[in-house]
Amino acid sequence: MAGSQGTRATDRTKAARAPASARPSSATRRRGRIGVISDTHGYLDPQVLEMFAGVAHIIHAGDVVDPEILATLEGIAPVTAVCGNIDAGELAERLPREVSGKIGGVRFAVGHKQKRLMKRLAAGKLAVEAGGRAPDLVVYGHDHVPSAAWIEGTLYLNPGTASSLEEEDDDPTVAIVEPGPTGLAVRFIPLQRRPPGDETS
Q: What is the pTM (predicted TM-score) of this model?
């Protein structure tokens, strides 16, 4: 099933190549603005290319399924991605399970599964910055449920599923994170749910 799903997804993703208008120069990208996506499951909604136009960076929290999705997103902005539990082959070899870093002045950590990510952060196995400072942004996926919580200055974010693969999933969403004078702000953006059996859009 995963193989056929990936094949169909490649056709969709190629049809969703970022237009020139969605590939601004680094000088025009909004400083620190981050596009956050997860659980694409081999399908990248063309709307995402417009919604992420102008971001400085994109975080994908796993279950990518099709490498072409990352290639398309990289046409918009630099991408940090992690391996999800159903990512295999090239993606499993190429992507870390968790990763940390800094985007502008925003310290972040990302992993696919919240429980594992939190354990590794608590155990100091995923250093965000020397000195043990907590990250400003912690991103995870897997549950297909969009959520955001600010705890002691850190934003814990699940952008939801961008594909809504299962009937019981919430409607698909992505998120935009933007630094502000009082900390990080997040905005969830709804996507259209694909009709059942749709293999072409």
A: 0.82
